[in-house]
Structure formats: structure tokens, C-alpha cells
Known about the structure:
By secondary structure, the chain is of the alpha/beta class. Helices cover 34% and strands 20% of the residues.
Amino acid sequence: MCGRLYLIPTPLVETDEPFLYVPLFNKEVICRLDCFVVEELRTARRFLSKCKIGKPIDSLRFFELNEHTAPMQIEEMLKPLFEGNDVGLMSEAGVPGVADPGAELVALAHKKEIEVIPLIGPSSILLSLMASGMNGQSFCFNGYLPVKTGEKIKKIKELEHRALVEDVTQLFIEAPYRNERLFDELLQILNPLTRLCVAVNITAPTQFIRTATIGEWRKSAKPDFHKIPAIFLIGV
């Protein structure tokens, strides 16, 4: 009988008390597992250490699954499951499989008829949408925008059109060191009446979330979010 693949959320920010941000029930699952698929080994080991799982971290088995992982390596990660062992899949931060390379393992598990069990935890995408006041019935997460200026401008205008004409909230992100540049571009490109939400460092003590029209943003101080994780939302 095959093992089960547990999808284990992790806090969005570094913390010594991880179960302030994820349900305590998750700890019961984590403590039972001896094998994990993780996005970044050091981060995962640090998280498990803070979970106080009651066993040496060095006794655990780890696979790394990130943008550098080859498809054949993902196949190897299923072996413990076929041997009857439960496996935990962890993202770098937030929920596995959402804007996360872990989705490839989940897809393969379904193909092999392995049971997939998602656990409750924080998602920056859903938390920012909840806090934005924009349409939560119809929305789209677009990941990163194009890097090249011409392509980026075209994409921003396309997202604004969908948001305004179809009433579909548009979410996207940028590399933290380019946040300020993207913010300035949004203020230049978007219509003054278009609403923009900026959600920064969600769940951290320094969390900042504000929704305002572009016209209002142009008259206010720029958020301080250089090299800090942020999500941008466009809506009506």
C-alpha cells in the first residue's frame, strides 16, 4: 500500500514560534514523518528544528525540489511513497503547490494514484486578496511580470483591461529588489481611477496593506518595501 503525500504549509516570515501561523494539528503530522520534499534544504531544516519534532533532524530523509530539479529526479521522490512511507512536501514559505515548484510532484502523485492531503496554512496570495477589498469571486494570479520594459507595459495594460472590463482581480509579484521600480511604473501606466492594492510582508510585525486608486497613490508616500516580499493587486 502506498504512503500519502502531505502538503505542509510553512510561515510566510521567519519566526521562532511557527505554530502561531500554522495550526497545531500540522505538528502532529510533521512529527510522524521521516521523509520530506523541500524547496530549500537549509530553510526546511531550520523550520523543522523550530517545530521541536522530537527526533534528530539528521535522521530525516530530504529531497530538494526547485527550479533546478530535473524531471527524472522528481520520479525518484515517489519511491518512499511506493515503499509505504508517508512524505511531507514543504514550500519555502506559504502553501506548497501554489506559485511553487511542488505542484509538479503533486501532479505526478495523482498520476500514480497516490493520496494527496493538503494541510491548512497561510497563503500570501489569498491573504492579500482577502485584505484588498477587491473581487474575491473572480481573480487571477499572474506570477511575475515580464522583465523587458516594452513587454511589461503591454502586460500591465492587459491586466488592467481584464480587471476593469471583466471585473477579475489581477494579482502579481516582482523580485523584492525591483518592487519600487514596478510600483513607479504602475503609477505611470495605470488609469487614475484604477484601484491598486500593495500587500507587503504579510503576517510580519511590519506588515503593510493598502488599497487606493492610482490617483490617490500618486498623492501619498511610497511604501517602504525595497527587498521585502510584496504582492500587487489591480481591481475595481
